[in-house]
Records
---
Amino acid sequence: MAASKSKNPQVLFVTPEIYPLIKTGGLADISGSLPATLRELGTEIRVLVPGYPKVLAGAKNKRLRHVFHGLPEAAEVRLLSASLPGSGVPLLIIECPTLYQRDGSPYQDHSGADWPDNDRRFSLLSRVAAILGSDASPLAFHPDIVHCNDWQSGLVPALLHFAPGKKAATVMTIHNLAFQGIFPPKSFNQVGLPPESFSIEGVEYYGNFSFLKAGLYYADHITTVSPTYAREIQQEPLGFGMQGLLAKRHASLTGVVNGIDMDDWNPAADPRLAKPYDAGHMAGKAANKRALQEKMGLAIDPDIPLLGMISRITHQKGGDLLLEIAPQLLQEPVQIVLLGTGDATLENGFRQLADTHPGSVGAMIGFDEGLSHLIEAGADMFLMPSRFEPCGLNQMYSQRYGTPPIVHATGGLADTVEDGVSGFVFDQETTTEFHRCIQRALAAYRDKKTWRQILRNGMKRDFSWTKSAEEYMALYETILNK
Ligand code: ADP
């Protein structure tokens, strides 16, 4: 392992997305805030990201550091140093126009189809990370730990395992085990790992090549984003085929719950709100409710309970459950606001629901960071009926914004919401239980004193990154001392 000059380990954090440059989901938020907190606590850290157009356009202080020639993925690859707007966290950006310079999301084109060369695109991310974590690095920065996130960086532990010489230790963090980066065997041939690694004791997954399995198999340590999810993924059904491997590696598997960016998500100073507020001055929340009702074409009514939901609209997030109970739910005075994109059938379901309930249901199909903040502030309750949720962020944003979340007891939702204290929790993933839980929340809402207490309990909770970042630092130490 590389020798560290400073007391704390030096860390290379590898991620396919990072807020505020490029975001499709929670991993971007985490990549934008965990490294910043680790740095504040004294860790010397660099974040490695692909040079998508938005990353190149938004990163500050870009400087060319190195040109790689003849990597298996591309003839010429440039490595830039830069800094993240806002926190100033040092970035390393992989500039490779043939692989990253395209419109669309990091993973898919505009039609929602995966980029056909995702194997090559993220093999390059992993390759550069592995070079930087090894003796062959062209930089003066020599990480002790390469911290990988999700399948897109899953090849790093495998590449480093087979690399000669001194090398960094690896941590593989699972943000969502449902995404595994599975490719046909011919992708394996292009990566240059030894043929014997294409086996059940290695990167092979039911005849295919899995980037995530490569990470889970070869990493020195595995983490995931909540203790409950760490337990759930060691069994069916949430192990998604990896439960055997994860159960075998349980001694090297830790759940560390995510924090949130308490500055970006602060109702007292959020520029995206109609009016700021805090637990002592809740009038601003009513102004945001009104602004949200106006924006979404809902009837203006300060008293009617307004239920919000923001998510990728997929089976995982349980939007179908809301669609199923909505007609019944809407027989009572409630309003529903949804913001999301995803599954076309479910998207249409929400459009139709809004069309058939004008003034009571608003559906915005799309990705809108500003509106997501207004929903957190303007809604009275927040819905997260996820079938599984490794950690989840919105339930924490909701508590901070005085918008009690209604959540299924799974993964990080179970770990961060206390039933009847700062939110509402249901155990079984059924429409009946979900509906019953909403009814409980509506009953509490009608009792002003109880409701105020629930809001206050949530708003005063500390979801900052400090505690989690300290856990990661302790973990890095333990790994390096092994
Ligand atoms: P996941 O990463 O599984 O999508 P998380 O709850 O961990 O779920 O994080 C989702 C993040 O993405 C949150 O910050 C959420 O507010 C945001 N988000 C999801 N969908 C949208 C959308 N359509 N518009 C704006 N923000 C969204």
---
Amino acid sequence: MPDGPPVPVTGSAVAPVAAAEPPLRQLAARHDLDLGTAVNLTALADDDVYREWVATQFDSVTAENEMKWAELEPTRGQHDWDRADELIAFARANRQTVRGHTLVWHNQNPAWLADLPADELGAVLKDHVQTTVRRFRGEIRQWDVVNEAVEEDGSLRDTVWLRALGPGYIADAFRWAHEADPDALLFYNDYDVEDVNAKSDGVYDLVQELTRQDVPIHGVGVQAHCSVERAPRTLRENLGRFADLGLHTALTEVDVRMAMPADPVKLEAQANVYRSLLRACLLTPGCLSFTVWGYMDKYSWVPGWFEGEGAADILDENFAAKPAHRALRDDLSFGGPSRRD
Ligand code: G3I
């Protein structure tokens, strides 16, 4: 909890957080749940209040960008680990775990990759996965090994990796990562897979086949970038079917955007979506973590990507708590025995 009085409140629906309230991470511990946030490393360095919230409210952190390949190896063969190391050191100092995001993706890859001939890509990808996972061995609890490899219709996404390496690149990536850090939990991660739908059916078929082949995959990450108009309805059922395969699950990038401007009705609707996402995770054995993709609107990625939308996080631009913060706090306040198998 930040010291001193919370800063201005921007509307009647948002409220300061009482200094006496227990930190969210303390409430989440009652459920054996890691409560996480994506971290903007620039804000972490420059904004004291932001840093204090990350340090005190959350028990897991994810670099919003700094563990992506373009950031780690901007020039071929020359790694820049500094920013990622900063986050690892911060997490260690605050007794937090780290989610690693992400090893194999079609976005935020280094520009030099585009110049390589297709027959070099397999070796280069293996080197990237293993160099990165080894570099952080023992420091990362969950790795997003493969990110967003499935299309909306459930087929494999047409990416540089699928074209050059065929569908086997996914199993290979998990095997390479497991060799490099046998203790890390390895996740497949995607968006628009909150509900039981064509895309999550495709992910289900993919991970079922991987488990059948004894590929070292340990979990499915459901990103949960949601909006107040489009709340998931079958998340509990969907998480349950992955649990039935013997896999962990995690909500990895939660936010709930709305058409701007925000108003009290939209903020209450948003709180309901956050609450239902959290409940689905709490009700699913093996749902290990609930990570928000940023916790305060000032640094959210949403307005830059969705024109006219925003206010997606649990705190407003001034660190005042929205109804969504209260909803998470209230649900986490109900104690209970460990849910983990
Ligand atoms: O690194 C450059 C920097 O040098 C430059 O000064 C700056 C100017 O705009 O741009 C910087 O890169 C930006 C980068 O974020 C770091 O701030 C990119 O333009 C911008 O596109 C990038 O956006 C990120 C996006 O992933 C890229 O795909 C968002 O911050 C990040 O929140 C978002 O996260 C993704 C997850 O990784 C996967 N799931 C979806 C989620 C939301 O899109």
